[in-house]
Amino acid sequence: MKCDFIDNRDHRGNTAAMTAEITMDNESADNESLDNKSVVQRALTEFVETGSAFVLEPRLSDDFVHHRPDGTSKTRTEWLAAVEAALTHLEGMSLEVRHLLADGDHVVMHSRRRLPGDGPEITVVDIWRVEDGLIAECWETIEPAAQAQANLTWWDPARP
Length: 160
Description:
This protein is α+β, with helices and mostly antiparallel strands. The chain has one domain (4-21, 30-149): Nuclear Transport Factor 2, Chain: A. It is built from 3 helices and 8 strands; from the N terminus they run ββαββαββββα. Strands 2-1-5-6-7-8-3-4 form an 8-stranded mixed sheet. The chain is globular. 19% of the residues are buried. This is Nuclear transport factor 2 family protein.
């Protein structure tokens, strides 16, 4: 999968791939958070550079679980196969990382993704849990940007 990568943290702009250099967001960031952020950043960099989900396999724990918003989950093998199958439909997708934050064993990535041309845009929040240097769990929320306005009043009973 060829994918344009835009790293917009601290207004860095367009980059060919996520930098492996880790920068501290503030002076008080703890080493565990920094190390876990590095684990996720390296995994995502390799994924973007190779275009293959299977490059992630050695970075995932054996009991990795991907949690879906609908309450279902996938094992490591199921998730890798699903991501790999989706890549053919994502050729040329742009990925803009807006935030990459770490707190203890959790790393959060907020990104915007767009298919080429006039393709749809989505906003994605991934939460990764790192254990013993491997990604152990992932939670994912995806919102189509075109539907964002309607979702701002989700609690309104008068909403269609």
